[in-house]
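pinging the channel bc i need a second pair of eyes. not urgent but kinda urgent?? the chain im working w is below, pasted from the shared doc
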Amino acid sequence: HVVDSSAPASEASAASTPASASASGALRRPQASAAVPVASAPGSGAGSSAGAAPSPTPVSAGARGHSQRRFANFAQLMVGLVRHPPLRVDYELDQRFERAQSLGEVVEALNPDPCGLLMGWDEEMRKLRLEVQYFERRAQHFELLLNQETDLKNQAQILCTRASFERNELFEVVKSLRHERDAVWRQLRKHNTAMATNDETIALLRSQCERYEASLKASDSFLVKDRELFKSGLQEYNRNMRQLRSLLVNQARS
C-alpha cells in the first residue's frame, strides 16, 4: 500500500486494511497536500473555503491547526491509498478526486455524506489497529525466521569454509601421495631393469653350468676308463708279482 511517511502511526495503519479498497482508474494524483489551505470541519460542507470563519482564540487556533495537520496527513494517506492499482475499483471516486482542489474537496470526494464520515469511525480505527498489531506480530515472526535463515546461512558458510580448508589439505596429501607413487614407479622400473639384467646373467650362468656338467660327465667317463685301465694294470702287476715270487721260491728251493 502507498503510505505517506508524514502520516501519524494511528492513521498510517489504515494502509493495511482491505476496508479502504474503494479506489479505481489510472488517473493522475490530485493536487491536495498538507500545504493546501484547510477547509472547515467535515460537518461544515464541501464548498466552504478558508476566510469565511470568524477569528478563533490562540488556544483554539493551535488545537485546530494540529487537528487540521493530522486530517491533512490522513487525507494524503487516503489519496495515496485509493491510488494503489490493485485496489482501484471505484471509477466515480477517481472522478471526484480528480476535481478536488482543496482539503475540503478531498474530504467531500472521500465521503460525499459529511455525517457518514464519522459513523463507526472508532470501530474502524480499532479494527485497523488490530490489523496493524496482527501484521506487526507477523513481521516479528518473519523477522525471527529471517534471523534463523541468516544463522543457517552463516553456519553453512562456516561449514563451506571448513570443507574448503579440508579439501585443500586433502589435495596436498594427494599431491604428496602422487609424488611417492612416482618415486615408487621409478624404483620399480629400476628393479625391473635389474631383474632383466639378472635374468640374462642367470641364463648365462645356466648355460655355463650345463657346459660344466657336460665336461664333468666327460671327465667322469674318462676317469672310469682310467680306473678300469689302472685296475687291469694292477691285476697284471699282481699276477706278474705272484709269478716272480713263485720263481724266486723255486730258485730258493733249488
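so Residues 17 and 127 are 8 Å apart (CA to CA). and The helical segments are 9-12, 58-82, 91-99, 103-110, 121-253. — does that match what u expected or am i reading it wrong
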